[in-house]
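Worked example 2:
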Amino acid sequence: MTKTWKSIAVAGLALSLCSPADARDRHVLWTVAGKHNTVYLLGSIHVLRASDGGLPDVANAAYADAEKLVMEIDMDDALAQPEALAGTMQRTAMLPAGQTLRSVLGDDYPTVQKHAAEAGLDLAIVDGYAPWFVAITMMAIELAKRGFSPEMGVEQTLAARATADHKPIVGLETPEQQFAVLGSLPLQQQKHFLLMTLEEVDEVDTELEQMLSAWKSGDTRRLESLLSEEFNEFPELYRPLTEDRNRAWLPKIEDMLDDDDDYLVVVGALHLVGHNSVIDLLEHAGYKVTQQ
């Protein structure tokens, strides 16, 4: 999961950064003290493998303590009606009338077609869809080949648990808002995003393991380092994918800090490290944020 792969897989990674030595006993989990409650902030990886060992004990404890579970989108609705979520994504991804993927990609179409064929995807099936949707589809295919699945990811694991426990789940944004982040990029930038994604396939395995190792050890400095190169190359993706959404979420998290209930907020780890992360914004707003 190099560059663009990392941003999507953990968006869907500063804060008070710790050194690799300090990170050994830490986790991608923070607590924020409210007036009468605690808000936990857990950095998620959206797709994991069965062999990755599940959630750390501190995350399970935070879930047990929280009266409400908060996620980027309302995951109990998504789990109950996955076809509706897929339909929303596909509608958002449709190209304007008169345009096709082939026409948008132009001379780069044969290159994309070659990569897609190697992955087992017939580009003709997605010819009416925007480049960002094709990039996401290609990511999903490559990650599935390596044993990664959303069902094993942090969000779906916790959402399934909350549904069984009848614990309320709240979304910070709607699926339409989430998909619009990539859909709002100009088509030439989407094309750039797709081509970058395909170029990085050969490097995925090494950086996947590096990212997972940093996530498991709570090494926020390493997580930020793994992502910084990407956003130097594609800054136009960073702002709408992370900073704009972080700022939109901040008032909602501050409202939680005025409540009596404890909350577990689960967002892509990308949103909790780096400049203008949720952690950074909360600290600048005067809240004490502690990494666990």
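Residues 4-86+148-178+203-291 form one domain. The two ends are 26 Å apart (CA to CA).
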